């Protein structure tokens, strides 16, 4: 039977390898999912996951129990993965928000017909910058101002990237209706 989280964290703080292994096993799958959303490749996501756990174990004293532990660990995974994003970010010119057209989303989109796996597959086909902003905004819940600060881009560029990601995703959804992913 698994240890209660507080006991497990206390053992991890004392440097017990078995507790660290158990914490890793509890969180690795979900945190790898976070890393995969931001890193340019699976290998880099796996590297980011390892760095994330090094940071978790070396910073456990900074976790004060205010809010869920997994949310604290997830934030570390996001910032660690964004470091990989910054290292490999394409240097292509980014369009400001006022140049981006808004995409209308009528009710009953093709998205309603897709499985979660198909949605993830489509999102993963987006260019890295678009995918990163979409994940940070739509999945992690960051504001455009926060995204801009994290990625070193303007708030307007974040809005532009999101708009373009939505437009490209819509195009790929329409193409998916004509040619299934499987």
UniProtKB/TrEMBL annotation:
Domain of life, per lineage: Bacteria
Any one Gene Ontology molecular-function term assigned to this protein's record: sigma factor activity
Protein name per its UniProtKB record: RNA polymerase sigma-70 factor, ECF subfamily
InterPro entries for the chain: RNA_pol_sigma-70-like, RNA_pol_sigma-70_dom, RNA_pol_sigma70_r2, RNA_pol_sigma70_r4_t2, RNA_pol_sigma_r2, RNA_pol_sigma_r3/r4-like, WH-like_DNA-bd_sf
Keyword annotations from UniProtKB, A to Z: Sigma factor, Transcription, Transcription regulation
NCBIfam families in UniProt: sigma70-ECF
Domain RNA polymerase sigma-70 region: 23-89
Organism, scientific name: Hymenobacter psychrotolerans DSM 18569
């Amino acid at each position: 039977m698994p240890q209660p989280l507080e006991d497990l964290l206390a053992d991890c703080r004392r440097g017990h390898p078995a507790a660290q292994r158990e914490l890793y096993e509890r969180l690795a799958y979900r945190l790898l999912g976070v890393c995969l959303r931001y890193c340019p490749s699976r290998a880099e996501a796996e590297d980011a996951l390892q760095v994330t756990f090094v940071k978790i174990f070396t910073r456990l004293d900074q976790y004060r129990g205010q809010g869920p532990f997994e949310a604290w660990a997830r934030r570390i995974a996001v910032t660690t993965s964004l470091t990989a994003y910054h290292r490999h970010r394409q240097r292509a010119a980014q369009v400001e928000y006022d140049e981006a057209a808004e995409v209308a989303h009528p009710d009953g989109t093709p998205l309603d017909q897709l499985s979660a796996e198909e949605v993830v597959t489509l999102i993963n086909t987006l260019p890295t910058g678009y995918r990163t902003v979409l994940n940070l905004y739509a999945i992690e819940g960051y504001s455009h101002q926060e995204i801009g600060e994290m990625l070193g881009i303007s708030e307007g560029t974040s809005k532009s990237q999101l708009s373009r990601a939505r437009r490209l995703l819509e195009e790929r959804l329409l193409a998916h209706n004509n040619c299934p992913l499987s």
